[in-house]
């Protein structure tokens, strides 16, 4: 558990505290019968700091970014599975494609 994970946990705790502070502020406004126009500036600042901590942790915890080689066989999206025997193309979806084609021709 490195520094990035710790910063992420602190960021989540700060966001949770900001949410609790906003709920507490709204309940105070209900008691005093005032309208809620937005959270206090301290809560907005807390939200921004918590957001920055969480974003920094999300970028540092997973590890370094690796380059993607475009001509590698591992990066090919179009590849057939090993068990081609289970691929069935004769199913009821075939009936819908012909009806749609007929409707478009008229």
Automatic annotation (TrEMBL):
Assembly notes: Component of the ER membrane protein complex (EMC).
PANTHER family on file: ER MEMBRANE PROTEIN COMPLEX SUBUNIT 5, PTHR21181
Major subcellular location class: endoplasmic reticulum
Any one of the GO CC terms: plasma membrane
UniProt KW NAD keyword: no
Family of this protein: Belongs to the membrane magnesium transporter (TC 1.A.67) family.
Pfam families, A to Z: MMgT
Transmembrane region(s): 42-61
Protein name: Membrane magnesium transporter
Tree of life domain: Eukaryota
Membrane topology, record value: Multi-pass membrane protein
Keyword rRNA-binding: no
Subcellular location: Endoplasmic reticulum membrane
GO MF, one example: inorganic cation transmembrane transporter activity
Record key words, sorted: Endoplasmic reticulum, Membrane, Transmembrane, Transmembrane helix
């Amino acid at each position: 558990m490195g520094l990035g994970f710790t910063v992420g946990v602190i960021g989540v705790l700060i966001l949770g505290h900001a949410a609790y502070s906003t709920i507490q502020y709204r309940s105070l406004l209900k008691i005093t019968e005032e309208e809620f126009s937005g959270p206090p500036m301290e809560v907005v600042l807390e939200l921004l700091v918590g957001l920055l901590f969480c974003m920094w942790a999300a970028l540092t915890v997973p590890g370094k970014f690796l380059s993607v080689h475009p001509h590698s066989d591992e990066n090919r999206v179009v590849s057939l599975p090993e068990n081609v025997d289970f691929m069935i193309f004769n199913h009821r979806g075939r009936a819908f494609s012909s009806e749609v084609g007929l409707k478009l021709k008229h």
